[in-house]
Design goal:
The complex is a heterotrimer of chains A (97), B (485) and C (381). With 97 residues, chain A is mainly alpha-helical. Helices cover 30% and strands 7% of the residues of chain A. The C terminus of chain A is likely disordered. Chain C is an alpha/beta fold and 381 residues long. Chain C contains 10 helices and 19 strands. In chain C, the strands form 4 sheets. An 8-stranded mixed β-sheet of chain C has the order 5-6-4-14-15-16-13-17, sandwiched between helices. A 6-stranded mixed β-sheet of chain C has the order 8-2-1-12-19-18. Chain C has a 3-stranded antiparallel β-sheet with strand order 9-10-11, with no helix packed on it. In chain C, strand 18 and strand 19 form a beta hairpin. Chain C starts with 6 loop residues before the first strand and ends in an 11-residue tail after the last helix. Classes of the chains: A mainly alpha (97), B alpha/beta (485), C alpha/beta (381). At the A-B interface, helix 1, helix 3 and strand 3 of A face strand 9, strand 14, strand 16, helix 9 and strand 28 of B. Strand 3 of chain A pairs antiparallel with strand 17 of chain C.
């Protein structure tokens, strides 16, 4: 049987989600951390809906997946140099060791 | 590799491209058009495998063509993991594939995929003893990573601009542009960010129609009209090619972070209209990640937008948007099959034109070594194929998944709908759970372009109203909402 | 859920699980762990996985040394990969005062068997190709420090503890702890009550709330600490690089991601876990200054966790005067993860076999009232 890939960025297949659920992972936040789902280059744009549907079916209702995993910035991977420009009037702390 | 060709893009195509140019692809010289997406140029050159996946080394190729997925990542001019569907083709660039040994095209590490046919548990492998584990860690480290670190001269920090805006509209699609127009109509100052270099969103889809049947207006035509209106608008500043990366909530209110190649800006926004559209979704089936499988909008952009046909025949699968796309492809002489459960006059017309139309079947698996060449179909729920179709290119669509992410950054409530995924919760005036954030279009669940346009206009009006009392505007908005109950 | 237990551990983070795991291994399994969210919900699932032995006090150095020893065996012992990679820690000093602190630390560390050495800026560039050492006086480098993946360390320990009979309840919030006189009698949760006479407060950023249920005031305060991760690339950075002038630190994970954070002296105590542009910007500027070749490396994600900070930067360990059987294992600031294996082990020895350890005296809650405070100055980030 060939793999059904849910998250292409991290090569997470449907079997990974099934097994995770069997091992007691009940929330998308847990499945995400366990499988790497939604942590790759697409940041979940291509897999969260699939994973939520899958989990809703296993848990027996759409209301069981009411919240998506916390959406973390950035929406698109962005090179450091673009985020490191000088900003006027930005207070720069000294920091202490 | 010789099957790929370019096709006529038809009249009114809004994607501009320059002269033919040459660039380097892994040592050989290939041709493309200046300004077209690198991925399109490579597909036109017959390139099928763009890279290898992170764990199983499965072949990867473009699939969304809109900068959402990770299938088309390449190394360009010494920079790893560049989305080639977003990167414009230029003369003299040097392009390489990543991962795979000895090459991405023929990768011996693919055996990992076959050996671990069901799945590979990276959590528990190599843990038999501490010594084995330490040895394995060395190997794993060498295998890890996606691409070599950048080798180009490191660029200096980009210009960073901080400014205040009355309203930031995120997304210049149908909803976002109409929201901006409505706001400008109320004399509000609006900054519109659009990730795509070309504003338009769904209106850029070649198969996009506003209104059905006889009176339908082409998305491309509607876009030309609205762009003209926007040009005449004083209060609207449009920043295409500048994706919003984040919306932060902090002590200073809402900060919108957006960035393009040349500069990055942080905008202190009094109001935000989230009109971020939706991400194409490919249904789940075995080998759903094989190169040659696209989302409906991805294939639309590639074929109708950029005129690249990597292979034939094309199988288009899905509901009404799939039928729209199939009609366009047949129109352009592309050998097309349609997998749908719908029945209407247009499909009957397609059947008359000898187009294969399959009903009552689902895709069970895609077959092909490095690019799709067949699909196996069977009834819903079945894993036993009843039908095998030759297929050089597959566009399969579920309902697009609303792009709720940026609204979620801003703390807006989202809700789950099983057919499409999470969407931003907004009322009939586009008000989200955050008083400073409005939402419109597909990200808030608009089912089609007409309703995205209407929701954009309303969100724009409601947003303007939230910035200052205006009984006349309030009446107009009330009337507009009352019109359809 | 069990309705009685010999010991209840509040907090399913690395400290609580490490203790549970050690207790279970010693044959003491009548233990219930209560976690309000999923495993990894708190700071244990939000940190950068840095493990270092370069500390400034004898206690901390020895404890960290023990932790490193335990982390090296952890994957094999739990059958769970924690991806521990000993690529070293490289500290950068930009002024004479910091340089002499590093020098003094090195001597102490060497005496205790940690092979830290001072390296010149030039030598540092050999360890980290491309490092911009302009303005750097001297560096301290210990090759046996390292980084790991926090999540699987928790899962592995939870798996072992569960297999041996410990009950771990996730999504279970402690709402009250009841006493009779000075004796604990019951822990009440939103999923039922557990009769017990001993409670370990390993609730990290929430420990002051747990303690308050028993009328115990802890001086710990939670502070948001932000962190980011970049795209996974082939190995190019071995050690954790840390600039002591602004508290920047970053390393490359086993997956190839650059992961790190930076101190923010303006951060106020709060339960905030939202991300900020301010952090992203300061961190990117610092990364670019230290290692210009990171310019084209893409930032993937940023998030925030807590530092559960005490006034002296050291944890609060052991029993308290006011309530019998109420044991503190909290206030670990930003270094709970690296201390956890050693702390868990010592605490288990102490609980079961009454084996004492000087840290329980030195780091007890009473020290703040007594004024016996020795500040750990090497808290980064």
């Amino acid at each position: 049987m060939a793999k059904t890939i849910v998250c292409r960025c991290e090569d997470v297949c449907i079997e990974d989600l099934k097994l995770g659920f069997e091992q007691g992972l009940r929330e998308l936040e847990e499945l995400k951390r366990h499988t790497g789902l939604a942590t790759g280059f697409c940041q979940g744009k291509c897999c969260i809906a699939h994973a939520a549907r899958f989990l809703a079916r296993l848990k027996g209702g759409d209301d069981m997946v009411a919240d998506p995993p916390r959406t973390r910035p950035l929406l698109h991977p962005t090179p450091v140099y673009r985020l490191a420009g000088e900003l006027e009037a930005e207070p720069e702390g000294d920091g202490e060791p | 590799m010789t099957r790929a060709r370019r096709i006529d893009r038809g009249p009114g195509c809004p994607f501009e491209r320059g002269a033919q140019v040459e660039f380097r692809f892994e040592g050989r010289t290939v041709q493309g058009y200046e300004g077209e997406p690198l991925a399109a140029a490579l597909l036109a050159n017959g390139v099928q495998v763009f890279g290898r996946s992170i764990k199983y080394h499965r072949p990867r190729g473009p699939s969304c063509m809109l900068g959402h997925c990770s299938g088309c990542l390449l190394r360009v001019d010494g920079v790893p993991n560049v989305r080639s569907c977003e990167h414009a083709c230029r003369s003299g660039i040097a392009v390489e594939r990543q991962r795979g040994w000895p090459s991405a095209r023929t990768d011996l590490f693919r055996t990992v995929d076959w050996v671990y046919g069901r799945r590979l548990d990276h959590h528990e492998m190599f843990t038999a003893s501490a010594a084995i584990n330490r040895l394995a860690m060395r190997f794993v480290r060498r295998m890890s990573g996606f691409g070599d670190p950048p080798s180009a001269d490191p660029p200096a920090a980009a210009r960073l601009e901080r400014f205040e805006a009355e309203v930031v509209v995120i997304g210049a699609g149908a909803a976002g542009m109409h929201a901006a127009l409505a706001l400008a109509g109320e004399h509000r100052k609006v900054t519109v960010f659009e990730a795509d270099p070309r504003p338009g969103g769904r209106l850029l889809d070649g198969a996009c129609r506003i209104g059905r049947d006889g009176g339908a207006e082409r998305g491309w035509a509607h876009l030309a009209g609205i762009e003209e209106q926007l040009r005449d608008c004083e209060g609207v500043e449009l920043r295409p090619g500048t994706p919003v990366l984040a919306v932060y909530q902090g002590e200073r209110g809402h900060e919108v972070l957006a960035s393009n190649r040349g500069e990055t800006c942080v905008v202190d926004a009094a109001r935000i209209v989230v009109a971020t559209g939706a991400h194409g979704q490919i249904p789940l089936f075995e080998n759903d990640d094989l190169p040659g499988i696209f989302s409906l909008r991805g294939l639309d952009r590639l074929l109708l937008g950029w005129g690249v046909l990597p292979a034939q025949p094309v199988l288009v699968a899905g509901g009404a948007p799939a039928v729209d796309l199939a009609v366009e492809l047949v129109e352009r002489g592309v050998e097309t099959g349609l997998l749908t459960d719908l029945e209407d006059a247009r499909i009957a017309e397609l059947e008359k034109r000898q187009v294969t139309v399959v009903r009552g079947q689902r895709i069970i698996r895609a077959l092909g070594a490095k690019w799709i060449d067949r699909v196996e179909l069977g009834p819903e729920g079945s894993q036993t194929p009843e039908l095998v179709l030759d297929c050089g290119l597959l566009a399969a669509g579920l309902a697009d998944a609303p792009a709720y992410e940026l609204a979620h950054h801003a703390g807006c409530r989202v809700e789950f709908h099983s057919e499409s995924g999470y969407r931003v919760v907004g009322d009939e005036r586009g008000r989200s759970s955050n008083a400073h954030v409005f939402t419109a279009g597909h990200c808030a669940g608009a089912p089609d372009v007409e309703r995205a346009i209407e929701s954009g206009t309303r969100a724009g009006m409601a947003c303007a109203l939230s910035l200052g009392e205006d009984p006349d505007l309030a009446r107009r908005l009330d009337a507009r909402c009352a019109a359809d109950g | 859920m069990r309705d009685r237990a010999d010991l209840v551990i509040v907090g399913g983070g690395v400290v609580g699980l490490s203790l549970a795991c050690q207790l279970a291994r010693m044959g003491f399994c009548d233990v219930v762990v209560l976690e309000q969210g999923y495993l990894c919900f708190g700071a244990s699932g939000r940190n950068g996985g840095g493990i270092r032995q370069q500390w400034t006090t004898e206690e901390n150095i020895l404890l960290m040394k023990e932790s490193v020893r335990l982390f090296r065996r952890m994957a094999a012992e739990t059958n769970y990969n924690i991806w521990f990679r000993q690529g070293g820690y490289l500290f950068l000093a930009r002024d004479g005062k910091t340089a002499s602190t590093l020098e003094a630390n090195m001597k102490l560390q060497n005496r205790l068997g940690v092979p830290t050495r001072m390296v010149s800026p030039e030598r540092a560039r050999g360890i980290v190709p491309g490092l911009d050492t302009r303005g750097v006086e001297v560096c301290a480098y210990n090759p046996t420090d390292g980084v790991l993946f926090p999540f699987p360390a928790l899962w592995g320990m939870a798996k072992v503890a569960t297999q041996l009979g410990v009950e771990i309840n996730t999504y279970t919030r402690v709402t009250d702890i009841q006493t009779r006189g000075k004796q604990i009698v019951k822990v009440v949760t939103d999923r039922g009550a557990i009769a017990t006479s001993r409670v370990v407060n390993a609730a990290g950023a929430w420990s002051w709330q747990i303690a308050r249920m028993l009328g115990v005031e802890l001086p710990n305060k939670p502070y948001r600490h932000e962190i980011l991760v970049c795209e996974p690339l082939k190995p190019f950075l071995d050690p954790m690089v840390s600039d002591l002038s602004d508290g920047t630190y970053f390393s490359q994970t086993m997956r190839g991601e650059i992961c790190g954070g930076i101190s923010d002296p303006e951060e106020k105590s709060s339960m905030e876990t939202r991300s900020s542009f301010r952090f992203l910007h300061r961190m990117c500027r610092s990364m670019l200054r230290l290692l210009p070749r990171l310019a084209d490396v893409k930032v993937m994600r940023q998030w925030a966790g807590y530092y559960d900070e005490t006034p002296d930067g050291n944890p609060i360990l052991g029993p308290v005067e006011q309530v019998d059987g109420f044991i503190q294992l909290n206030g670990f600031g930003g270094h709970g993860f690296m201390l956890a294996p050693a702390i868990g082990r010592q605490a288990a020895e102490w609980l079961l076999r009454k084996v004492d350890h000087p840290m329980f005296e030195k780091y007890d809650l009473g020290r703040f009232a007594r004024g016996e405070v020795e500040r750990e100055i090497f808290v980064i980030g």
